[in-house]
Amino acid sequence: MTRITQGSPTVVIAPDAFKGTASAQQAASWLADGITSVIHNANIITVPMADGGEGTSSLFEGERITLPTTDAAGRLTEATYTFDAETETAYIDVAAATGMPAVKDNPVAMTGDTYGTGVLIADAETRGARRIVLGLGGSATVDGGTGILVALGINPLNAAGYNLPPGGGALVDLADFDTAKMNIPAASMEWILLADALVPATGERGAARIFGPQKGASEEDVEKLDRALAQLCEVTGVDGSRPGYGAAGGIAVGLSWVSKLLHGTEEHVRVLPGAQVMAQANDLADKVTTASLVVTGEGRFDSQTAEGKVVKTVLDVVSRTDAVAAVVSGSFEAEVESTNPVVAVTLQELNDVQEQITRAGAEVAAGYLKISTTQG
User: Fold this and answer.
1) At what angle do helices 353-375 and 24-38 cross, to 10 degrees?
2) Would you kindly state where each structural domain of the chain is located, as residue ranges?
């Protein structure tokens, strides 16, 4: 039976960012405003979430560092990451420098690279970072992390010994790497890779086929990119079938290879489900134990949500309680599956994003009250 809390119901609000429109912090705050406009005495607990995509690094404590770098198309831009000097850890989103928004009008699935992210990594090492927590969501590239390697002084070569051009498409001709100018301190750091989707690098559920079309790849491009990532795995000896190795266009492949080259093992690289890591870091399971309503959300709810996104992770946590679950999204392209009662709210088409999300919060509250009255 759904819990009906006497007095002030506890509401946990744990959304992802609504990409390109609202950060997780903003979404949580605006949803709270909408809910309290209907349930005036609600005890609100906000838990902004992320899965390794846009906004992940900003949820960690530390100094926010902004510097010039390049986007996925190689154009000059600026990007920001978080550095915690006390723990010698840098929190970097691949989306910050290598994300889709900068190239959405002219996608670069075949030629885009992660060099700009590598610049951030190299900078973090000079500041004293010994560990990189890399959020893998929202990338515009399928280069297996080779752009990062180039930024760290490691150049991919073809069979004739010439440098390959940037991008994943060129990796079909990969034969070797030139490591003579490697930035060893940066390349040898500990890597924690937060995957927003636990897909493999290659195959039917691999990076090219699952995410290539979103990044502007045609059917022909997808096939070539899949072969390119397979060639990268062949040359590096990395098992591309492992879960999460396809996130952000296969970045884990390149980083696992260089880490093993320097340390002799892959023990210094961990690929983890980003949303689950964030849930644990925020003690989400403990916070929902007393909740009557748990609200989450994202920009688009679709088949990829179940691959390890924030919404699926929150729903899994809620399933171990008797709370009502609510999902807010710009669109629903798949059915919300949950053992709990669920309120699903689609954002209204308004120009004001804050008003959109606030109204959605009010709709969630109304839906919760209806369920509580029916099942109480």
Assistant:
1) 50
2) 10-48+283-375, 56-275
Does the pLDDT at position 34 exceed 80? yes
Q: Distance between CA atoms of 133 and 89, rounded to whole angstroms?
A: 7
> Does domain 56-275 fall into CATH 3.90.1510.10?
yes
Nearest alpha carbon to residue 207 among 232, 235, 237 = 232
CB 141 within 8 A of CB 249: yes
CA distance 297 to 182: 42
Model pTM greater than 0.90?
no
* Helices 219-236 + 251-263 axis angle, to 10: 10
Class (C level, CATH) for 10-48+283-375:
alpha beta
Integer Cα distance of 295 and 122 in angstroms: 38
All residues at 6 or more sequence positions from 218 whose CB lies less than 8 Å from its CB, including other chains: none
CB 173 within 8 A of CB 164: yes
Q: Do domains 10-48+283-375 and 56-275 have the same CATH topology?
A: no
**The sheet that has 10-13: what strands, in order across it?**
43-46, 10-13, 293-298, 324-329, 342-346
Local structure of 99: helix, strand or coil? strand
Of 131, 16, 32, 82, the closest CA to residue 354 belongs to 32
Lowest-confidence pick of 100-109, 124-133, 366-375 = 366-375
Q: Is the pLDDT of residue 177 over 80?
A: yes
List the single range of 191-200, 203-212, 267-276, 299-308 with lowest mean pLDDT.
Answer: 299-308
pLDDT at residue 305, rounded to an integer: 72
Cβ atoms of 356 and 297 within 8 Å: the answer is no
Residue 226 tokens, joined: 């899949």
Name the strand (E) or helix (H) holding 132: strand 131-135
Residue 33, burial from CB neighbour count under 10 angstroms (0-12, 13-18, 19+): middle
3-state secondary structure of 181: coil
Separation of first and last alpha carbons in the chain? 7
